[in-house]
Each structure stands twice: as C-alpha cells, then as structure tokens.
Amino acid sequence: MAGAQPRTSCRSLLKELEILPIPWQYIHSLMNFVISNHKNFQTNLCIYNINTSNKHNLHRPNADISCFQISTFLAGIKIFNVLPPSVTVFKKDETKFKAALRKY
C-alpha cells in the first residue's frame, strides 16, 4: 500500500497514512461509545453535590462483580476521566469532541 520494505517500522507509515494504531483505535471507539451514550453516565457533581476539582469527571460506580469491572462501560469511564480538559470540555458536542480527541 505504501511501497515500504518488509522490515520497515510502521509508526511513521501510520502517521503518514493517518491510521491510528490498534490500542488507539480501541480508545477512540470507547470514547465514541461514552459520548454517544452520555445520558447513561453521571458526573461526580450529580452524585455528591460537592464542588471539587473532579466534579466534571464521570462517576465510577462501585461494583464487586468482576464481569462489571472489566466491562466496556467501566473502561470507558476510566479512560474518559484521564483525558485532558481540552478534550472533555466538548463532551456535550459529539462532533467537536471527536475532532478534539482525534487531534489529541
């Protein structure tokens, strides 16, 4: 596709072709799930009514069930809470969020 040699590193080719590596594709699809279903998630401010620095983070429900702990729902919350504020500020606008996430 790119005319590269068999032993050439894919990193520069992926950047050139604007293709996300597999782990980033997973993160991108998780964030698309969270944003398209944002009404199913609550922020910490909705739960605790305390004005803290993490008030805009998504609330992680406590669950001892191991199948829930490895679920897409909880993984999406964990990754969303780690994103910088320059990306999460667009959580209400899906198109701007996707553009900011892709740029990040």
Give your account of this protein's structure.
Helices cover 55% and strands 0% of the residues. By secondary structure, the chain is mostly helical. Helix 2 (22-36) packs antiparallel against helix 7. The chain is elongated.
Primary descriptors:
104 residues; mainly alpha; 55% helix; 0% strand; elongated
Topology readout:
Blueprint: H1 10-17, H2 22-36, H3 44-48, H4 66-69, H5 72-82, H6 85-88, H7 94-103
Helix pairs in contact: 2-5, 2-7
Overview in brief:
The protein has 104 residues and is mainly alpha-helical. It has one domain.
Q: Structural class, judged by helices and strands?
A: mainly alpha
Mean pLDDT: 78
State the domain count: 1
Q: Largest sheet, if any?
A: none
Number of strands: 0
What's the total helix number?
A: 7
Radius of gyration: 17 Å
> What percentage of residues falls in helices of 4 or more residues?
40-55%
